[in-house]
Design brief:
By secondary structure, the chain is mostly beta strands. The chain folds into three domains: 131 residues, no CATH class; 131 residues, Sandwich (Jelly Rolls), CATH 2.60.120; 139 residues, Sandwich (Jelly Rolls). Helix content is 10%, strand content 30%. It has five helices and 21 strands. The strands form five sheets. Strands 1, 4, 8, 9, 12 and 13 form a six-stranded mixed β-sheet that branches. Strand 17 and strand 18 form a beta hairpin. Helix 1 packs across helix 4 and helix 3 packs antiparallel against helix 4.
Length: 443
């Protein structure tokens, strides 16, 4: 499984940084990189999925005119590793969607900006990348959408809203790629998409969780999520999760041979988390699907490791929360997506195999809430039954955390951004049992 991740050259927060003067530095060496010959190919490969008109990035990098005013700020962020955004420690694991630039590409951009960001010969410019209008994934086979433009208020807490979108599929479909495209990114915090089949489809649990990690019951909060206080409450059945949208996580694409199943007659249920931003507006989110040409060898499933029974003390700058799960069936883990809110600061994941071996499989030393990355293992992890996964997250609830909405209060699990979560999404497939020995083979 692989994912086409957003590759950005510079992002939110760039506005206001110093720009550079027009033209090439007098006396620059002939080897000075130019935009047309050297820099544009890097941008086209790594940045313009986002950095083009109509997409999420704050400016386009498709042309020299677009990129020139931002040269110094781009070089600064590239040299510091801020852009493209990637937060996993390279000492642990190799990932298919690693967004880091090579040292050579970083050097090219920095030298180009330092030399005055010359354009070079326009004849050297490679063909601009082709993108489907309105979609990062390319043109979808199927587009499904909320059947209403939901009004989001200017202020106040907006409880999770749930919208049902019929697929009208007359047979099972397998998703090769999915893109959830908010109608208004300014107010859409996240979207989780569930596929509810016409009848429940019981599944054997792939993970067993340690006791004491359950999310505490909060009847007051639960009441707010129900009708009549919530005009779009959760339905009685959601079905399994099949994907979603979060800041930094836009498109999922699966390798041939693996795909996500959507049953015939399924209804997609969209869990929408809206955040009011001071202006009344509307949202009508769409979902683009690219369908597999044939039934895949392996069906991708999704689960989560959660610890909801925590309290982060007021002022704590290094509060630790752990979660444990035990594999119940032989399976292959393809990716892991760590999720906290704005107090989360870092994560580590270890597996302990049935033979006692322990291995760190992922470390995120500088977790960034603004980039919800699904880390896709280049070599998927084959985990036998009995393997234990141990997740650890650290939180900063102190006043030194510039993103902390209120360091004076204890923080518990909650849906809203000013509350917290300890949540890891997993994508996995079940391993086929070994074939029985044929006649004459030793058991």
């Amino acid at each position: 499984m692989r994912t086409r991740m957003v590759l950005a050259g510079a992002a939110a927060g760039i506005v206001g940084l110093v720009t550079v003067a027009q033209g090439q530095t007098p006396g620059a060496a002939a080897s000075t990189p130019t935009f047309s010959k050297d820099v544009a190919p890097i941008f086209y490969k790594n940045c313009t999925v986002c950095h083009r008109p109509g997409e999420i990035a704050p400016m386009s990098l498709l042309t020299y005119k677009d990129a020139r005013p931002w040269a110094k700020s781009i070089a600064d962020r590239v040299s510091r590793g801020v852009m493209p955004p990637w937060h996993a420690d390279p000492a642990y694991g190799v990932f298919l969607n690693d967004r880091r630039l090579s040292d050579a590409d970083k050097s090219t951009i920095v030298r180009w900006a330092g030399a005055g960001a010359p354009e070079g010969n326009p004849a050297d410019l490679p063909p601009a990348p082709s993108h489907a209008a309105g979609w990062m994934m390319g043109e979808p086979d199927v587009v499904l959408a909320m059947n209403e433009a939901y009004p989001v208020p200017a202020e106040g807490t907006v409880e999770y809203k749930y919208f049902e979108v019929p697929t009208n599929f007359t047979e099972d479909k397998f998703i090769q790629a999915m893109e959830v495209r908010p109608g208004n990114r300014a107010v859409v915090h996240h979207v989780i998409v569930y596929a509810r089949p016409p009848q429940p489809e019981p599944r054997t649990a792939a993970l067993k969780f340690a006791e004491g990690m359950e999310i505490p019951k909060n009847e007051e909060a639960a009441a707010k999520r129900r009708a009549p206080l919530n005009d779009r409450p959760a339905p009685q059945r959601l079905g399994p999760s099949i994907g979603g949208f979060a800041p930094g996580q836009f498109v999922r694409e699966y390798n041939p041979g693996t795909a996500v199943r959507v049953p015939a007659g399924a209804v997609l249920v969209l869990q929408m988390h809206y955040t009011a931003n001071g202006t009344p507006t509307t949202d009508q989110t769409r979902i683009g699907l690219r369908l597999a040409k044939e039934k895949p060898k392996d069906e991708v499933r999704m689960s989560a490791i959660i610890n909801g029974a925590f309290t982060i003390p007021a002022g704590a700058s290094e509060h630790r929360v752990d979660a444990d799960a035990t594999i119940q069936q032989d399976l292959t883990v393809w990716s892991m997506l760590p999720h906290t809110h704005v107090r989360g600061k870092r994560w580590t994941y270890e597996v302990t195999y049935p033979d006692g071996r322990t291995e760190t499989i992922l470390s995120v030393p500088k977790y960034d809430f603004n980039w919800q990355t699904d880390y896709i293992f280049k070599e998927p992890l084959r985990l036998p039954k009995g393997t234990k996964i141990h997740a650890t997250a650290w939180y900063d609830n102190s006043k030194t955390n510039a993103s902390n909405p209120d360091p004076s209060i204890d923080v518990k699990w909650g849906d809203q951004t000013w509350e917290e979560m300890m949540f890891t999404a997993l994508n996995y497939t079940l391993n086929a049992p070994p074939a029985p020995p044929t006649s004459g083979e030793k058991r």
